[in-house]
Specification:
heterodimer; A: about 120 residues; mainly beta; 6-stranded mixed β-sheet; 4-stranded antiparallel β-sheet; about 50% strand; B: about 120 residues; Immunoglobulin-like; 10 strands; globular
């Protein structure tokens, strides 16, 4: 079974600064997808960014980018120019390429933005 | 258009009672997923539907849990003889299809408290 580990329960960053959230995973599969989701207090999960394991190029979405290290099984999220609206829980998630099952999530990192 | 909706938003029930949680997916989404999120934890995948068929029910925590879906619309998650350990937020997600190329859109969840 796959596991996803987020070792930082909480992170704090000054507004406009850059922060990196860590995620590692364990799998024996070679083809899979990785995701970062944001969960604000409203509880609604929002997809931030997605990475296909077969792609070497790191995914980027505006201020959000990932550092995907397949050999190390590491998938960190970098948020540049942090904004107050970025404050939320962030979850890393994994899904097999050939699976129709749901996502496997880490326990999350609570991101605090200091004004 | 309307997103995924769930009802009730919050439910408090006494131990031993049955509860029914409802999910209305985005219109046209054939795949539907149920997750459980315990306090301070990531999401735990429970079950998915492709149309009204649930090929794999092994993710349901116990035989007290069951789920149904009517066609490609509403789904209900039923918990019989609730226990305090069932207290959690239950999240539903839907997607156009079941593959990884289809984003899962989440509802706001139902917070279940068993007293």
């Amino acid at each position: 079974a796959q596991t996803v580990t987020q070792s930082q329960p909480e992170m704090s960053v000054q507004e406009a600064e850059t922060v990196t959230l860590s995620c590692t995973y364990d799998t024996s599969e070679s083809d899979y997808y990785l995701f970062w989701y944001k969960q604000p207090p409203s509880r609604q999960m929002i997809l931030v960014i997605r990475q296909e394991a077969y792609k070497q190029q790191n995914a980027t979405e505006n201020r959000f980018s990932v550092n995907f290290q397949k050999a190390a099984k590491s998938f960190s999220l970098k948020i540049s120019d942090s904004q107050l609206g970025d404050a939320a829980m962030y979850f890393c998630a994994y899904r097999s390429a050939d699976s129709a099952d749901g996502l496997t999530f880490g326990k999350g990192t609570h991101l605090i933005i200091q004004p | 258009g309307a997103g995924v909706s769930q009802s009730p938003s919050n439910k408090v029930t006494e131990k031993g009672k049955d509860v029914e949680l409802r999910c209305d997916p985005i219109s046209g989404h054939t795949a539907l997923y149920w997750y459980r999120q315990r306090l301070g934890q990531g999401l735990e995948f429970l079950i998915y539907f492709q149309g009204n068929s649930a090929p794999d029910k092994s993710g349901l925590p116990s035989d007290r849990f069951s789920a149904e879906r009517t066609g490609e619309s509403v789904s209900t998650l039923t918990i019989q003889r609730t226990q305090q350990e069932d207290s959690a937020v239950y999240l539903c997600a839907s997607s156009l299809g079941r593959g990884n190329s289809y984003e899962q859109y989440f509802g706001p969840g139902t917070r279940l408290t068993v007293t």
